[in-house]
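Subject: two folds for Thursday's group meeting

Dear M.,

Sorry for the delay on this. The cluster queue was jammed most of the week, so I only got both jobs back this morning. I'm pasting them in the order they finished. Each block is the input sequence followed by the predicted structure tokens. Could you check whether the formatting survives your parser before we put anything on slides? The first protein is the one we discussed after the seminar.
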Amino acid sequence: MKITAARVIVCSPGRNFVTLKIETAEGIYGIGDATLNGRELAVVSYLEDHLIPCLIGRDARQIEDIWQYFYRGAYWRRGPVGMTALAAIDVALWDIKAKAAGMPLFQLLGGRSRDKVLVYGHANGKDIADTVEAVARYRELGYQAIRAQSGVPGLASTYGVSKDILFYEPADAALPSENLWSTSKYLNYVPKLFAELRQHFGDDVHLLHDVHHRLTPIEAARLGKELEPFKLFWLEDAVTAELQEGFRLIRQHTTTPLAVGEVFSSIHDCQQLISEQLIDYIRTTIVHGGGVTHLRRIAALAELYHVRTGFHGATDLSPVTMGTALHFDTWVPNFGIQEYMRHTAETDAVFPHDYQFEQGFLYCGETPGHGVDIDEQLAARYPYQRAYLPVNRLEDGTLFNW
């Protein structure tokens, strides 16, 4: 099954997406997501200038060999740009292989481990009362797991708090905007939020929270300990994870479950976290982690150590990644939960898909492949618009983690 053509499609139906389309001599094509928020064109260049010329003429069925060719053959391995580009190729090839086999991707991976995929939504508000109302709206929509974020008094903006009830897009300007941050104000406020949520909703809903890499290990340990009475499903990205052993300190002080990994691009970013059981959920995503081929290895390692998957699923991942992730979630034995941030109507129109939401779960379809396509004519109506994620500063002006 010879690869005859491959091209990159860049569009912005409400936000920027990068999509790779690979075509074969048999007329079967596959698509993969190559979106890297705020660095989209770097991935476009890597694909067009370096990978696609080496891809033409290869056998699309040889997924493992092609993956190794681009990973080992690059010499300069890993990193978000390279692994995102490689993921786009890998997902497109799995899409082709499943279409050629006439089966949905989850069947090609080994079949169902579950009938439906538990997802969580994002409730947020300018203050605690506003967030309580947002959680109530998500409950009305059927969500059984909800991430809760709230504005913090004294801070003009806070990560995870959006202007829209259902849609959150942090890449908000042509040049990076600047936010201010106070760890002390945040730490004093968050336990009050979850005390209020449990009082309103009881224990029948799973509650999650994202710190977004803004604490030191001992600060994260304090927060995890203070949140224990409220039984969080997980505390996400409590610290930056370059220092993997830093999670040991958090583990020593709290039983609140820990999740991390959305910015990881390789199994080497999480090997110690998993093998020492320092986390409970691994969040590495298919699009930034080298595709289905590499995520299978991460999930297999995690299974040995009782770590479950909890894939990143924000709107900066196109429906192509969401659809592929759902097939992976349906198959993988050590599934935990799937993040589900709804795309806009414009995005859904550009990327028609067969997955569906119902009462807190997503269901992947039975269409051969990963079940997501791209309307290229419609995509052409939405040209690329440069957009950056914000940067963060402490109140004294020190640049900090966003």
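Second protein, same layout:
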Amino acid sequence: MRTPESIRPDLDELATRSHVTRALRVDAHHHLWRFNEVEFSWIDDTMSMLRRDFLTSDLTKELEGARIDATVAVQARESIEETLWLMECARLTSAICGVVGWAPLMFDELPDILDRFGRSPKLVGFREVVQGKHDGYLMQPAFNRGIEELTKRGYSYDVLIQERQIMEAIQFVDRHPHQKFVVDHAAKPRISSNELEPWKTNLHELARRPNVYCKISGLVTEANWQTWSGDSLRPYLDVCVEAFGPQRLMAGSDWPVCLLASSYSRWWDVLAHYFAGFSESETRLIFGENALDFYNLSASS
């Protein structure tokens, strides 16, 4: 079984090597992949720049430019093989301190599969691509039994939904008051069409559950890729802060998907500008400490 203590040396090494006096900065959400047409069919012609491999060597260059110290790699395919590959990437790359993988939550064999995964201390949680599933997917009994198995083992669960699915997600998380959840990409508001409602009201309601956190990530690709600005994102960032507060927000890039609309460094600059008026303790939470706590990672900064 994974333990925070087994992860600490990687993060301590980062702090020592870079002689940081600032707070540790964590990218709480990025991907890695070896591209192929079949498994990445969601990458259509409008996303052609993503039709290539994005590997740890590419990630490392981005981290250096944006002064990011540690990361959480998140699944992009519903594949056991990808989860195993991400675990290996994390083992070989000290900056990747956590992996959110995929497992067949509705399979009877789930406990055996989790036993196999459990040998990696960097596997911290799981995710499913629920945003593309049918209505009612989160309410299926077999799926909820899978979540109960994650709860028993202390794993987190990333909720990847679109804004139309928030009300279903509320019913879902209410079934699991002891499970740690984080909503990816703030549940994908309709930024490109300048719509705040009903996303705003529903997100506030979801945030009333204290076991639910929110990732500020993926917003640029919900906006107009060519014309978005920090000002156009501000109303949506305001809602996230109002709903979850600095104590339950974590910053992530959604790299390489973010490259459709923004460079890696630009995204972090936008967040830095938005949160410039927040206190030092609040920014430490949002840019690192919340992710470390949520995913059971440990670090000294």
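Two things I noticed about the second structure. The domain at 4-294 is CATH 3.20.20.140 (TIM Barrel). Residues 1-21 have pLDDT under 50 and may be disordered.

Cheers,
T.
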